[in-house]
From TrEMBL:
Domain spans labelled YbaK/aminoacyl-tRNA synthetase-associated: 31-144
Record bears the keyword Lyase: yes
Keywords carried by this UniProt record: Lyase, Protein biosynthesis
SUPFAM superfamilies linked: YbaK/ProRS associated domain
EC number(s) given by UniProt: 4.2.-.-
The protein's name: Cys-tRNA(Pro)/Cys-tRNA(Cys) deacylase
One annotated GO biological process: translation
Amino acid sequence: MKKTNAARFLDGLGIKYELKEYEVDEADLGAESVADKVGLPPGQVFKTLVVRGDKTGVLFACVPGESELDLKKLAAVSGNKKAELVPLKEVQPLTGYIRGGVSPLGAKKHYPVFLDESANRWPVISISAGVRGCQLLLAAQQLAAATRASLHDLVR
């Protein structure tokens, strides 16, 4: 597999990771389906959501695939009164990534990253490598260091 921007970003920081490819099903881009394809429990596969806060602007929220982001919790920890998911049509222009392939690493611009604290329960977590059909496996602490993420309870 060709290296993605996210993988090159980690290479530049000297962070160890594993790339795991899987067959893409365009009808089902859900994180739970990805978890099944890469052989991990859904709680270990994190999806990256693009969110806009009313005060701080665009940010990334990384939450377990089996969970739903609590926008009120995210707003509170990110210094916003409210937060909402960015409309799908804005995701690629803002990040350079398409739906099903958004990564908190190597985006067009650095946005603040908020990682659900459950990531620390796993020796490694899986996040998108920046393209559909490929996941990055790395330690949550390494992801947090690479993205300057803060860890919080972000799910319902």
